[in-house]
Amino acid sequence: MAAITDEQVETVRGLVASIPSGQVSTYGDIADAAGLSSPRIVAWIMRTDSSDLPWHRVIRASGRPAPHLETRQLERLRAEGVLAVDGRIPLRDHRHTF
């Protein structure tokens, strides 16, 4: 992976912070909005620098949460009125666009 700049990190952080309660975005949505070449860059940034952000509002393109975060993520989303159907968030109902 190419070096990630502080500007890219701050752009991703700003986009994640802007996702309203009750909505979600995918790693790919954020990558596109930030002008990044891959959703994996967003995932790396989220993994290393997102504890103070609404990280639970970022999901995979399939609508599923990350397996290791599934229980906590779905609980937090449910508290915001985002209900999973068979473990998947219906993106057509809850997707935030930038």
Which features does this protein show?
Arc Repressor Mutant, subunit A; mainly alpha; 98 residues; 45% helix
Briefly summarize what is shown.
The chain is mainly alpha-helical and 98 residues long. The protein has five helices and two strands, in the order H-E-H-H-E-H-H.
How would you describe what is shown here?
This protein has 98 residues and is mainly alpha-helical. The chain has one domain: Arc Repressor Mutant, subunit A (Orthogonal Bundle). Helix content is 45%, strand content 4%. It has five helices and two strands; from the N terminus they run H-E-H-H-E-H-H. Helix 1 crosses helix 2 and helix 2 packs across helix 3. The longest helix has 12 residues.
- Strand order within the widest beta sheet: 1-2
Instruction: State the name of the first-level CATH class.
Output: Mainly Alpha
Unreliable stretches, pLDDT < 50, 5 or more residues? none
Number of strands: 2
Helical residue percent? 40-55%
* Structural class assignment: mainly alpha
Question: CATH-wise, what's the superfamily?
Answer: Winged helix-like DNA-binding domain superfamily/Winged helix DNA-binding domain
CATH architecture: Orthogonal Bundle
Protein name: Methylated-DNA--protein-cysteine methyltransferase
Keywords: DNA damage, Methyltransferase, Transferase
Pfam families: DNA_binding_1 (PF01035)
GO molecular function: methyltransferase activity
